């Protein structure tokens, strides 16, 4: 399929004599072609034409940055039905102008073809009310329409496979047999091979229920994707990934896919309708675009709140409905995180793999030291804690310690317990004198009524502090 896209992109490059790049509607790279210049003039390794930094990053990273996306969308490319000329902007790294060809099918934008203009396209008429576009651009738009039809068909096929996956992972027992049969038919031999389930939380739930909008054709190795709503009301993405072997060591393709999925604009978009559906307009005003670019240009800003919240560097984000240390961190929002369940062979145990993947993603969101991608086998006590009902009130003994005013004591207690009660290690990690540690722990005992020399009291407090993160 990608070869088909490459051929069509090359057709456009040949017609216009310009380098062309095909990206999906969320600026994920699908195919690119180079044109012009001799091999001796190849200054960047991409075919004989010096490219501006934006195109180079798009090819190397397989996706444009949020700031670049906002800049281009400000010209109304998602609403356009014909070519759109975009001037250079050296301040944004756009050293060359472009002509954007919207890739549409039945009125829905599925992607964009970008033509680099080093000046030789400047006289081409892009068209407008009562003005026909240059015949070469008209021919290129016909090719873009063929690309749109293929992307639409591929997206629809992905939706159908995604519906089978969602019903198998989260549907009622009565429909699981049919879902497994349908998924097996769609995947062929892959259905019996080594597989892993990846969960990305949160995930914007706009668009078709079975679709995974914002991913285009999806990362390599992903056999199926679906979006589902979790019991706590947030959206989550499930991705079924082909592995080399059904072992933890063979799960590297799942980690690679998870990292790619986290770059999607929908990753970290909590709540229903956080992202755009396929048919919605992506155009925004220029002022709004620049605001969006500034916001998007601060990667991890939301996640940092969870790292430096009430528990300091430990990164606690708090229990649901609790006004306290973790609540402060959670108020600023959380970045997306991904979890990976244990590898399985075949489709029979994917529901368990999904539960593990969700647990690992929740743990990664709660504890910055685990994320942004965590495997279920490596999340330690969260394997038990995530299996318990989330969102309940904290234990009465631990509740006083979870108030905002006690953030320093809470973190001290957690580090001390993480260090298995070894005062020297805990004091070194906290960067304090051992006597200061003992003083703080004595205050913890007075606040909670717990005896930190007793194993069961230590266990209760340690679980309460970890549970507060979730």
UniProtKB/TrEMBL annotation:
Q: Which InterPro entries match?
A: CdaR-like_regulators, PucR_C-HTH_dom, PucR_C-HTH_sf
Pfam families noted in UniProt: HTH_30
Q: Which residues form the PucR C-terminal helix-turn-helix domain?
A: 409-467
Its protein name is PucR family transcriptional regulator
This chain's source organism reads Streptomyces pathocidini
- Organism lineage: Bacteria, Bacillati, Actinomycetota, Actinomycetes, Kitasatosporales
């Amino acid at each position: 399929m990608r070869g088909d896209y490459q051929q069509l992109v090359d057709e456009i490059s040949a017609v216009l004599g310009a380098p062309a790049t095909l990206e999906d509607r969320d600026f994920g790279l699908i195919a690119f072609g180079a044109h012009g210049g001799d091999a001796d003039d190849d200054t960047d390794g991409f075919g004989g034409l010096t490219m501006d930094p934006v195109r180079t990053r798009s090819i190397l990273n397989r996706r444009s940055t949020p700031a670049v996306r906002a800049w281009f969308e400000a010209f109304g490319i998602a609403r356009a039905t014909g070519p759109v000329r975009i001037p250079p902007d050296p301040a944004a790294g756009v050293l060359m102008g472009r002509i954007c060809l919207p890739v549409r099918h039945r009125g829905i934008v599925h992607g964009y073809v970008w033509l680099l203009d080093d000046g030789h396209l400047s006289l081409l008429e892009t068209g407008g009310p009562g003005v026909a576009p240059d015949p070469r651009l008209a021919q290129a738009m016909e090719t873009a329409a063929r690309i749109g039809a293929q992307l639409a068909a591929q997206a629809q096929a992905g939706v159908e496979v995604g519906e089978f996956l969602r019903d198998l992972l989260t549907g009622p027992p009565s429909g699981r047999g049919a879902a497994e049969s349908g998924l097996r038919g769609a995947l062929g031999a892959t259905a019996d091979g080594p597989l892993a389930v990846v969960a990305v939380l949160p995930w914007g739930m706009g668009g078709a229920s079975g679709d995974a909008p914002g991913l285009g054709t999806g990362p390599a190795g992903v056999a199926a994707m679906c979006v589902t709503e979790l019991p706590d009301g947030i959206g989550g993405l499930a991705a079924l990934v082909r592995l080399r072997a059904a072992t933890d060591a063979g799960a590297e393709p799942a980690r690679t896919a998870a990292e790619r999925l986290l770059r999607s604009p929908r990753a970290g978009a909590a709540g229903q309708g956080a992202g755009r559906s396929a048919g919605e307009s992506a155009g925004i005003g220029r002022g709004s675009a620049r605001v969006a670019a500034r916001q998007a240009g601060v990667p991890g800003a939301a996640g940092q709140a969870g790292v430096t919240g009430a528990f300091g560097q430990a990164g606690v984000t708090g229990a649901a409905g609790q006004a306290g240390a973790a609540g402060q961190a959670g108020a600023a929002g959380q970045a997306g995180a991904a979890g990976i369940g244990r590898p399985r062979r075949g489709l029979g145990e994917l529901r368990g793999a999904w539960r593990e993947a969700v647990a690992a993603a929740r743990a990664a969101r709660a504890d910055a030291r685990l994320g942004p991608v965590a495997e279920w086998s490596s999340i330690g006590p969260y394997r038990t804690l995530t299996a318990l009902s989330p969102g309940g009130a904290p234990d009465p003994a631990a509740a006083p310690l979870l108030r905002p005013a006690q953030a320093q004591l809470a973190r001290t207690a957690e580090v001390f317990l993480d260090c298995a009660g070894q005062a020297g290690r805990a004091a070194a990690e906290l960067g304090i004198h051992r006597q200061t540690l003992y003083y703080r722990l004595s205050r913890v005992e007075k606040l909670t009524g717990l005896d930190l020399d007793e194993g069961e009291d230590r266990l209760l407090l340690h679980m309460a502090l970890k549970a507060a993160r979730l």
